[in-house]
Amino acid sequence: MSNEATVHAGTADPAGTADIASYIDHTLLKPEASEADVLKVCAEAAKYRFKSVCVNPIWVKTVTTALKGTGVLTCSVVGFPLGATPTDVKSFEARGAVLDGADEVDMVINIAAARAGDKGALTEDIAAVAETVHAGGAILKVIIETALLTDEQKVLACQAAVEAGADFVKTSTGFNGGGATVEDVALMRRTVGPDLGVKASGGVRSLADAQAMIAAGATRIGASSGIAIVKGEQGSAAY
């Protein structure tokens, strides 16, 4: 499990500009992103000391090479953005990402199972990917896609992630409707307790947004507006 959940959760003074970068997964998940775009994001992450760079699987090797020696992690996604692929395919994709150098993997759950209240299917799906990711020495974040779920379904998905051995729960892909909300982050934190990470992603575009998410219990921020956030400006990126 991730140790950072216990480091930052519930702090009385949420991160200011001095350390906000350490919460941010600097994200580029646009399907049309070029190698030049990816390398630019890597350079930005090294400069601002973001926690990780999060990219689609085809760019993991590129990012791992570009970030070598910077201390910035490589993050990739699995079953993204729909989560509607078989478990063995998600596991295969996760294994490839880790072999290519990913330190962290963000998987999308079986959203249909969550909406149907099928906790068993959710847990099995997550556990298989968690086993693969952990075998490679990486950590697993579980995207529950809050915009498509009721509060009851969000709780169910978070419980499944805990039981399956995930390291984080994450709000959103940013591709299927609404993004992170303070209310959802707080609900997820209450559900998973103090020892699991909570990642707020989608629509976090300013320092105030990020601080609000951290105050609600987030220990990681997924954003393509990371530079604007650390500069105390308003980002305009969609994710």
Please specify the SSE layout and strand pairing.
Elements: H1 4-8, E1 24-28, H2 35-48, E2 52-55, H3 60-67, E3 73-78, H4 87-99, E4 104-108, H5 111-116, H6 119-135, E5 139-143, H7 151-164, E6 168-170, H8 182-192, E7 197-201, H9 207-216, E8 220-223, H10 226-231
Parallel strand pairs: 1-2, 1-8, 2-3, 3-4, 4-5, 5-6, 6-7, 7-8
Structural write-up:
This protein is of the alpha/beta class and 239 residues long. It has ten helices and eight strands. Strands 1-2-3-4-5-6-7-8 form an eight-stranded parallel beta barrel, surrounded by seven helices. Helix 2 links the parallel strand 1 and strand 2. Helix 2 packs parallel to helix 3, helix 4 packs parallel to helix 6 and helix 6 crosses helix 7. The chain is globular, with a radius of gyration of 16 Å.
What string gives the helices and strands in order? Answer: HEHEHEHEHHEHEHEHEH
Largest sheet: 8 strands, parallel, barrel
Fraction of residues in helix: 40-55%
* Distance N to C terminus: 26 Å
Shape: globular
Given as residue ranges, the uncertain stretches (5+ residues, pLDDT < 50) are 1-13
Looking across the biggest beta sheet, what order are the strands in?
A: 1-2-3-4-5-6-7-8
Strand % is 15-25%
The beta-strand count equals 8
Average the pLDDT over all residues and give the rounded result. 92
Count of helical regions: 10
Which structural class do you get from the secondary structure elements? alpha/beta
What oligomeric arrangement do these chains adopt?
single chain
Specify Rg, calculated over alpha carbons: 16 Å
